[in-house]
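Notes to self after the Tuesday call (sharing in case useful).
The group wants a holo model before anyone commits to mutagenesis around the pocket. I volunteered. Ligand is pyridoxal-5'-phosphate. Logging inputs and output together so the record is complete.
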Amino acid sequence: MVPDSDYSLDPADWEAFEATAQQTLHDAVAFLQTIRERPTWQPPPHEVKKRLHEAIPMYPTPLAEVCAQARRDILPYPTGNIHPRFWGWVMGTGTADGVIADLIASTMNTHMAGYDQSGSLIEEQVLRWLCQLFGYGPEALGIFVSGGTVANILGIVAGRQAKAGYDVRAEGLAGRPQMIIYGSSETHSWIYKCCELLGLGRKGYRPIPVDEEHRIQIDALAQAIDEDRAAGHLPICVNGNAGTVNTGAIDNLDQLADVCKKEDLWFHVDGALGGLAVLSDSLKPRLRGIERADSIAFDLHKWGYLQYEIGCVLMKDVHAQKAAFQTSADYLESNGRGIQPNNLEFAQLGIQLSRGFRALRAWMAFKTHGVTGISRIIDQNVRHVQYLAERIREHDHLELLAPTPLNVACFRFCPPHLDVQALNKLNREILMRIQEAGIAVPSSTLIDGQFAIRVANSNHRTKQEDMDILLDAVIGIGEEILQSDLPR
Ligand SMILES: Cc1ncc(COP(=O)(O)O)c(C=O)c1O
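Result:
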């Protein structure tokens, strides 16, 4: 019996702990190795849901027992994005080496506010690699955050501080002109959360119409800026999309950079979906102008294939980043030496003070696969979507609903003589049956009011044949539904 004065949460028996840990690792590896043999998605069965709904555990259960329950009730029922045929929303797969990175990071449980420690060196190193890949110079830095939403918001916060013309952090917004942020009508919904959080209200976002390829109309943007200035508003920032969530459309980033330069606006790029295309020599030219952005947000848990959560924002000028987030407090001041020789660098570059070691995942991925290994998969994802699009074009009863400039395809099953409502209903039913049968997980969107089955491929496990399996299912299930009555 451990005396009360020496109680700890460490295992009483390290050998038993190690055996359980080995077993858990073994289960994890087997799960990943056999992932293709399982349904893409399966909901937790009723009895599992019941078992997971339990009273608060007041007393200890042996770790081996808890792990056995996790193996039975938790591990088999993820969203499914680690499966080769998951292409819903924009999710990444995670990697096998990411499991090891997380094990090491979790073991160290290092505090990533800064400090003189290996974690700080790793985060700065990976940020510098990323800056280089995006075409930024030595004045640039950034920070790892939970995901694209937060990364985008940090970029806009820095833009607001830089372009407001006064110290927003000190003075707030009261009595000042309405600030306006611009972006295309295809911009992801984070932009609204951002305007709300920044106190601008939703009216602080000015959605600009898109052209037939779903890219922002530059003339309409310029006109909106003029009109807002004439109305006494304060334009501060333009968001360019490096891959829209709906269709993967890439705004003309070079022209947006020109507009921002002329109008003295902060140029932010949302590359959550497509920004990492800069890793690929063949895709990079499509993002020309991204290197002129003041801030770039992207997600390593999407097209970087890493485990959740890891998003990143890079800023062209680290001083602007510091100007937006730096604070001071007596209890955080450096004493010039010791464990904290300077003022907690990463806490000064974003909003979090306590931060985890997500950077290790990215470091390990770059080291184990190299830029060439990652970019090869990025190219492959795009090729597979182009293959899917080609097959759709060739089939009389399939239709692409939008261009496919990157790794996203929106399409539908469209037998003749059905109106839009019937087609929408038919395609929704096809999608639901495909998901529920565990065949694959695409998601859906509306393109001009037309229901689209949407494939966003940031999956390093997908093979070309998986696209065939999806299309065969769409056609097969579509015809099956037509032969029965369309469900209401
Ligand atoms: C274009 C785009 N921007 C931002 C986001 C939000 O990123 P996150 O889900 O990592 O917060 C997404 C998510 O799908 C996205 O596709």
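Two things stood out.
The mean pLDDT is 97.
The pocket of pyridoxal-5'-phosphate is lined by residues 89-90, 147-149, 152, 188, 190, 245, 270, 272-273, 299, 311 (CB under 6 Å).
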